[in-house]
Specification:
The structure is a single chain. The protein contains 4 helices and 25 strands. 8% of the residues lie in helices and 31% in strands. The protein is mainly β. The chain starts with a helix and ends in a 13-residue tail after the last helix.
């Protein structure tokens, strides 16, 4: 009896490790959406513990062609444990049409016993809020060696993404793009191409698991500074072999365009720490047409600032000389301490597949006196034609009469968001290493926590949605 039980567990784990390599790029639901009927779009996601530069990579990056092998994740050339969906980084992109029925079977094959849930960031989940994927709020997490099927209608249209909603897993690999294309695109006349490879998922990246980094930061005052920034799972840079005898480089990510054409780019920030990212492209302006999935009246900018969870769509007109141009990702706040910056290359067809001729800007050479959309930590700027900062109050909806602002709200709720140095029994013990003692005796003491209305967040013992009456009222704050 004991032998049978052991064998059954081993068989489940082995079969789970052989993840299906479903090609989401050629899925039947990737299609033109104008004039088409809704479809049911089915996907399978195998979630597992994995590694960058795994044995699937052979001699990558010292044999660069090995980096293109199936299941090989090179990232920035540093070997570390990650979480992966179908052994891809970022997780595979889903593209559907508005009002399609999306069905996703998520199978938890993580070998370290962790739970998982998948949140569909940007989907309104009307009448399906139990499919929102927020662990311990809308559902119990998916236990190891079990599976759960999400089913919801893809609405509203726009650039969205999906990610784990357990701990820091999304920053360790469990995140991918979810693009919902409209049946009627009000910006269609502004661009000719909307390519899957021009969906850019960017994020900060560590050489350890995010949970470990957070624990060291909160309990031992280690820093919370990312090691690099990834663009679609890649950060170029020098890599030294284990024996120290060979040095090579993870190559730059190339974004290909054809001169004279216009392209819709979709940018998603999956930043884990407080790391807003500035994006700008050498010799090109960005025509921003959507924010967080919602269509806006087009605005031109030179620099775009995007924070974790945000999405921006912009149109790039390939109107420069057919050559190669630098694409800059420049991290701010937590990323600024190490001057974290990652580059990619905008490549025009017909030009050599090579580095641009210009010397790239260093972190400190960020262009000045240029239009900047969503500038970091800046108050609202009103009508000043000379100001170069496009604060969000200057954006306007592309809808002439949005339905959600046509009615007077019945209730108004005011939420104050902030980072506060405060006491927490999770990280401080009064009389031993209390938070006030820390501040007095040790420079930089205390614990900085994100709060809403000066209240800390704590997960309940059961999901609010399914077992609200069983949750002690002391855990949550009522809003009248």
């Amino acid at each position: 009896m004991h032998v049978v039980l052991v064998l059954s567990v081993l068989l489940v784990i082995v079969s789970g490790s052989q993840a299906l390599r479903e090609d989401f790029d050629s899925h039947p639901c990737v299609r033109e959406c104008v004039g088409t009927s809704p479809m049911t779009c089915y996907y399978e996601m195998h979630v597992e513990t994995y590694a960058t530069l795994s044995k699937a990579c052979y001699r990558c990056p010292f044999n660069i062609t090995d980096c293109e092998r199936e299941d090989c994740i090179a990232s920035d050339g540093f070997r570390r444990m990650i979480y992966a969906i179908n052994r891809q980084l970022p997780s595979p992109q889903i593209r559907v049409c508005e009002n399609d029925r999306v069905r996703v079977k998520v199978m938890n094959h993580m070998s370290n016993g962790e739970v998982v849930s998948i949140h569909w960031h940007g989907i309104h989940q009307q009448n399906t809020n139990y499919m929102d994927g927020v662990s311990m709020l809308t559902q119990c997490p998916i236990l190891p060696l079990t599976e759960y099927e999400y089913s919801f209608v893809a609405s509203p249209h726009g650039t969205h993404y999906y990610h784990s909603h357990v701990g820091t897993q999304r920053g360790d690999g469990l995140a991918g793009a979810l693009i919902v294309k409209p049946s009627t695109d009000i910006h269609l006349q502004l661009y000719q191409h909307d390519l899957m490879e021009h969906t850019l998922l960017i994020q900060d990246w560590f050489h350890v698991l995010g949970g470990g980094k957070a624990a060291l930061h909160l309990h031992a005052r280690d820093n919370n500074r990312p090691d690099t920034l990834l663009i679609n799972g890649v950060a170029p840079g020098d890599v030294t072999s284990d024996d120290g005898l060979n040095v090579t480089q993870i190559p730059y990510k190339f974004l290909t365009v054809e001169k004279g054409n216009s392209y819709r780019f979709r940018v998603i920030s999956n930043a884990l720490m407080n790391c807003p990212i500035e994006m700008y492209i050498e010799s090109h302006s960005l025509l921003v047409i959507a924010s967080d999935g919602a269509d806006i009246a087009p605005v031109i900018t030179d620099v775009l600032v995007i924070s974790g969870g945000e999405r921006y769509d912009f149109v790039l007109l390939a109107n420069q000389t057919a050559a190669n141009y630098w694409v800059y990702l420049r991290g701010l706040t937590d990323c600024s301490q190490r001057k974290t910056q990652t580059l990619a290359i905008l490549h025009y067809e017909g030009a050599p597949l090579a580095h641009p001729l210009s010397t790239p800007n260093s972190y400190d050479q960020r262009p000045t006196d240029v239009l900047t959309l969503n500038p970091f930590n800046m108050g609202l700027v009103n009508d000043d034609p000379t100001d170069m900062h496009l604060t969000l109050n200057k954006l306007e909806s592309a809808e002439t009469n949005p339905r959600w602002i046509s009615q007077e709200p019945t209730t108004k709720v005011y939420l104050q968001l902030g980072l506060h140095r405060t006491s927490s029994p999770l990280f401080n013990v009064a009389g031993l290493y209390g938070w006030m003692d820390d501040i007095i005796d040790i420079p930089g003491g205390g614990t900085v926590l994100a709060q809403i209305n000066s209240v800390n967040s704590i997960l309940p013992p059961w999901p609010y949605l399914s077992q609200y009456d069983d949750i002690p009222e002391v855990i949550y704050t009522r809003i009248a």
